[in-house]
Amino acid sequence: MRSNTFAAGVDAADISLAFFGHPVSVTRFNGRLTVRSPGTATSIFLSLLDEIDGAYFRPSFAALVPWQIRREHWQLLYLAFDLAREPLYLFSSDQVAQANEEAGRSGRHRLNLFELLQQESERRFGFRYAGPVVEGGGGQRNGRHEVHVAYALAAGKPVPQPVIDDYTSLSKFDSDLQWAKPLLAVLELRGALPLSKLVPLANVMRHSKQAITSENAALLVMLMRLAPNEPTTVEVDDLLYERGVLESHPLPELYMKPVDIGQPSCKFAEVLRRTLADHARDGRLAELDNARAAGTLSKRDIELGKQLAILDHGRATHTYGNGLAKAIQAADMSYLLSVLDRPDDANRSTKQAVREVFGIKLIGVRAASRRRAIFELAGMDSVQQAEWESLSVSQREARRVAREIACAREAAQMSRVRTADGAVLTGAEWVDRSIAEGFSQIVSVRQGTSVRYALADPVRHLQVSLRATDGTLAYARASLEQRAS
Predict the structure, then answer these.
(1) Tally of structural domains, the chain
(2) Within this chain, do residues 10 and 106 fall inside the same structural domain, yes or no?
(3) CB 143 within 8 A of CB 76
(4) DSSP letter at 246?
(5) Rounded distance between C-alpha atoms, residue 449 and residue 426, angstroms
């Protein structure tokens, strides 16, 4: 047998054991305490099974079913299966060698304790390592004791209270057996419903964070008699909701806080926000209706989903619309083409907003016509389009960087920085001066959950702080990127 943790530091010579009056040798193998008994490996191993059998599986020569056996006693049999794979924990090397010789004379390759135990377990108990057939389990075999206890409780079998207490304290009814947890405490539920109704009922109540108790068990059983013979969780959820057992889903906490959607910079930004929000809301409502028709969402789920779709419509911001409007005004063709010069089913709502405000059609036209229309949207005629498209990739990139620098500089101009000599500069002037003085790298240092940025001079090992909030970080990045190109 393997040692318990309390004996980990005990010397084997200090331990004295006896079995039916006969001394048993205690030794240490691979750092663990074990025993050595006289006799052959086969006889010793079968004597171990005899103890388990006589004391727990067939006391008084009466065979017990799995759910009548205590969990710890059931585990002894499977511990024996584990030990069968590691015979040196039980026997000396001489005993193992002798057993292998005997197996060879019998035509077997070597001693196979695992198969021996399988055969003995089947002869004595009627099952092998895979476990006995689960009562009411559709013919499945299972070696997990908790499975047998769960099905027995569901069927209303007289499971001994000590066995139930084992699982009340162990909380082993997890994963695939969570439906059985209420059966441990609620006597009124045991044997009251077929599994086909008990399982979805328990799942719905658990997901709704409502307990099944002795106070509500009778009502739930009565209501489940109104359900189909094999109801889905959606059907059970609907039934309990209609009868007032379940309440409507609460709004997520996120929706309890207002959202600043901002202000539209122009009519196009306003229309684009509305068009996108309409599309998202209508698409979500259609998805919910389809899911309801398919029976995959409960009435409560549908009600919450539709409520959120409507609320999301009002929480959509003007950020994207303002950004696209700015790109149109600045003739940022790289960005505009990436958004609009795509097949009809891509960014369809954005193209519809362009049609509504500017009268420019981007859907249902040839690719060349669509591209020409996008340049027209930005105020560029065919000559300017040809000029832009003749630019090299590097030239386009240079224009992009220049636009980013201009935007970043504009933001940095709004901030003020007091230098060490007392001068007050704009953020843009301060970044320009720092870069000119040799500060040529941006470094970051994490401080807790935040990140601090700085402009560093790698030669003098100096740093000056940058901030994302005042535009100096963005302007420094854009300026250094332009210098590197």
Answers:
(1) 5
(2) yes
(3) no
(4) S
(5) 29
Residue 82: both structure tokens together: 């584990």
- Asked if residues 350 and 374 have their Cβ atoms less than 8 Å apart, the reply is no
Q: Are residues 295 and 270 in the same domain?
A: yes
pLDDT in tens, the chain (485 residues): 444 454 555 665 556 566 556 666 666 555 565 665 666 777 777 888 888 999 999 988 888 999 999 999 999 999 888 877 776 556 666 666 776 676 666 656 666 778 888 898 999 999 999 999 998 888 899 999 999 999 999 999 999 999 999 998 777 787 789 999 999 999 999 999 999 999 999 999 999 999 999 999 999 999 999 999 999 999 999 999 999 999 999 999 989 988 899 999 999 999 999 999 999 999 999 999 999 999 999 999 999 999 999 999 999 999 999 999 999 999 999 899 999 999 999 999 999 999 999 999 999 999 999 999 999 999 999 999 998 888 766 677 777 777 778 878 888 888 888 877 777 888 888 888 889 889 899 988 887 777 888 898 888 888 888 888 888 888 888 888 877 76
Domain that holds residue 378: 331-390
Domain boundary among 345, 360, 390: 390
* 227 and 169 together in one domain: yes
Spatial distance between the Cα atoms of 430 and 456, rounded to a whole number of angstroms:
14
Token readout for 343 is: 């097949």
Residues 6 or more apart whose Cβ sits within 8 Å of residue 267? 357
Contact by Cβ (8 Å): 417, 428: no
Q: Are 81 and 170 within one domain?
A: no
Residues 480 and 370 grouped into a single domain = no
Question: Phi and psi of 15, rounded to 5°?
Answer: -110, 135
Per DSSP, the three-state class of 455 is strand
Name the strand (E) or helix (H) holding 426. Answer: strand 424-426
pTM (2 d.p.) = 0.67
Q: Please give the structure tokens belonging to residue 436.
A: 């000119």
Q: Are residues 51 and 116 in the same domain?
A: yes
Considering the domain architecture, whether residues 288 and 348 belong to the same structural domain is answered as no
**Co-location of 60 and 109 in the same domain:** yes
Report the sign of the C-alpha dihedral through residues 205, 209, 210, 211, in that order: positive
* Residue 145 falls inside a structural domain: no
DSSP 334-373: HHHHHHHSS-TTSSHHHHHHHHHHH----SSS-HHHHHHH
State the Cα–Cα distance between residues 306 and 76, nearest whole angstrom: 55
Phi, psi of 317 (to 5 degrees): -95, 175
